[in-house]
Write a structure and sequence with these properties.
The chain is α/β, with parallel strands linked by helices. The protein has helices at residues 16-27, 40-52, 67-80, 104-118; strands at residues 7-10, 31-36, 57-61, 86-88, 128-131, 141-144.
């Protein structure tokens, strides 16, 4: 996969799956916007690693539960790197509670709000944000540019 010249925005990129995804995209040639919520040092380390690969990388903080911060993350990414070609919506949110204390509402609400805010059309003016799969069935978020 050759992603040279592409700009990727990965939320939740300061750890876990998001971190590994950002590294893989950089290995494939993409420049990265590293979206993080609280782990600034980890995001800075990842950005430095990606820059050592010869790619551009910018760590940007944003709370994906807040619409204004979602828009600010996209705006800052595009100001620093250019228009977003690839969106990986990986940020997670939720309450830190003991398993028996987690309500159905705790499990449902944060992630549903996160998905809808990051894939809103107003976050990517002039482009269509939609969900799809190869077989035509609707599923996870995908950004069509």
């Amino acid at each position: 996969m050759d992603l040279r010249g592409r700009i990727a925005l990965v939320t939740g990129a300061s750890s876990g799956i998001g971190y590994a995804t950002a590294l893989r995209l950089a290995e494939a040639g993409a420049d990265l916007s590293i979206g993080y919520g609280h782990k600034e040092q980890a995001a800075q380390v990842l950005a430095a690693h990606i820059r050592q690969m010869g790619r551009r990388a910018v760590p940007l903080r944003g709370d994906m539960r807040k619409p204004a911060e979602v828009l600010a993350l996209v705006t800052a990414t595009e100001a620093e790197l250019g228009p977003v070609d690839i969106l990986i919506s990986n940020a997670g949110a939720g309450a830190r509670k003991r398993l028996e204390e987690i309500s159905l509402e705790d499990r449902r609400t944060p992630l549903c709000r996160l998905e809808s805010r990051l894939t809103r059309a107003d976050a990517f003016p002039g482009r269509v944000a939609r969900s799809s799969r190869r077989d035509g069935q609707r599923r996870g978020p995908r950004l069509d540019c």
